[in-house]
Predict the structure.
Amino acid sequence: MGIVKEFKEFILKGNMIDLAVGIIIGAAFGAVVKSLVDNILMPPLGYLMGQVDFAELAIEIPVPEGTGDPVLVKYGEFINACIALLIQGFAIFLVIKGINAMKRKEEETPKEDPKPSQDIVLLSEIRDLMAKQQSGG
């Protein structure tokens, strides 16, 4: 029974839940970027390059006749994946840059000096009075 309790504590820690949320959002973001690349960016780019569908670009490696289908090296899909990676990387860069800018603003905000405690104030007054008495005042 101890391992179940330990697992429950582990899974319910804040960091673990934050990580799970990040993974889920990251997966959804990846799907959106893949759709952006495959359905929005690549068709016009292929059109401008002479009706090329990047997803269909492949090199066919022939196999001996009668042994099966030829092997396809689908480098067009690889190009799509590389473009998606660049877009995702740039988006993450912008998010991190924004977070760092907000952190810098927090750090630059001048903090007021904390007011001394009542004890310190009284001790300072006593010190000043003693200094005044010693100087003959």
Notes: The CA atoms of residues 84 and 90 lie 10 Å apart.
